[in-house]
Every structure is written in structure tokens, then in C-alpha cells.
Design goal:
adenosylhomocysteine nucleosidase activity; Nucleoside phosphorylase; methylthioadenosine nucleosidase activity; 185 residues; nine-stranded mixed β-sheet; Nucleoside_phosphorylase_d
């Protein structure tokens, strides 16, 4: 059995309530809620794989719209004891999920200004969200393989011409299409 994970119910609006071969988990937004909910789920039942689907803001203008598989994640909103931004005092600097250059910067705030975008870009972030690092870390603690697919909902700091509701619905449909294509369900 696989576990289909999203932070928000709205990110799963295009998915059927029951998806063959998958159980479903909505964690709530942010690193703490993501960590708590995924830990409880993995402690309660064994899973062969975790598939995270959701939305992300694009920081790197070359990343483009559509669905992207995340290859590594880091926390952009932490600072270690030496004052190095993007490095936690006791957590790994980054979680490697595969080979490639699609990175996601995770933090507990919305990124909506040029200064924050430049800082995260300087740390290597191409996408930004509020949960991916937490999901990857928890999956590693339990030894469960994880894939993270993010659909670009907006470019951080831009004046998007879609409402959040319209954007997340469109992203959910893109993610559903990818699940159907890759998993056949």
C-alpha cells in the first residue's frame, strides 16, 4: 500500500476519495503539522511508498509551470549556531530525494517579496513550500521511500492573475493527471 499525502484538502480536489493502492493523508500546512501527521501515519501502518502531491511557488524563472519531481529539499528559514542561513543546528542541511536539480526550499512563511526570493535563490532553492523538507525527513526516519511532486501555483512575489482557489484547483488536476500517467490509477 502507498500513502498519498497532501498538506491541504484543496490540493486533492481532482482526486477521487478512494484511489486504488493508496491511502490518503491530509496533514495541514507547515512543517510541524506535516511532521506530526506523517509520523502518526507511518507509526500506525506500514507503507511501501509515500507520494506527496501539492503546490509550490516557483522562485527560479527557468523552472516553468507544470508538475515537477523534487530531487532535494532544505529549510530556508533556519540558521545554525554559526549564523549560516539554511542550516539547522541539529537537522541535515538537505534531504536528497533523487538525482537532478529540482530543489525545494521549505519554510513556515509565505514568500512574497523580492528580498526573500533572492535569499532563497542564493541558497539553491528553485521552488518553495511549507512541508517538503519535513515529509522527506520523516520518511527517512521510517525508511520509507518518498516521492514529492509539486505543481507550480505561482511565482513567488508576482501578481498572479488567478485566485488561490483557481490556481490550486488547476494544480490538483495536473497532479491527478501525473498520478494516472505514472501509477495507472
Amino acid at each position: 500500500m502507498k500513502l498519498l499525502v497532501a498538506a491541504l484538502e484543496s490540493e486533492l480536489v481532482a482526486f477521487p476519495e478512494q484511489l486504488p493502492g493508496f491511502e490518503r493523508l491530509v496533514t495541514g500546512p507547515g512543517k510541524l503539522k506535516a511532521t506530526y501527521a506523517l509520523t502518526r501515519a507511518l507509526d500506525a501502518a506500514p507503507y511501501d511508498e509515500i507520494l506527496v502531491v501539492g503546490t509550490a511557488g516557483a522562485l527560479d524563472e527557468t523552472i516553468g509551470s507544470g508538475v515537477h519531481e523534487v530531487h532535494w529539499a532544505f529549510q530556508h528559514d533556519v540558521i545554525n549556531e554559526d549564523g549560516v542561513r539554511g542550516e539547522h543546528v541539529s537537522m541535515p542541511q538537505r534531504m536528497q530525494l533523487g538525482e537532478g536539480d529540482v530543489s525545494i526550499a521549505t519554510g513556515d512563511s509565505f514568500i512574497d517579496d523580492a528580498e526573500a526570493v533572492e535569499l532563497i535563490l542564493s541558497l539553491g532553492g528553485r521552488l518553495v513550500d511549507m512541508e517538503s523538507f519535513a515529509y522527506a525527513w520523516v520518511a527517512e526516519q521510517f525508511g520509507v521511500p518518498i516521492r514529492i511532486w509539486k505543481a507550480v501555483s505561482d511565482n513567488a512575489q508576482d501578481g498572479a492573475n488567478l485566485t488561490w482557489e483557481q490556481a490550486v484547483t488547476a494544480c490538483s488536476h495536473e497532479l491527478r493527471d501525473r498520478v494516472r500517467e505514472v501509477y495507472g490509477v
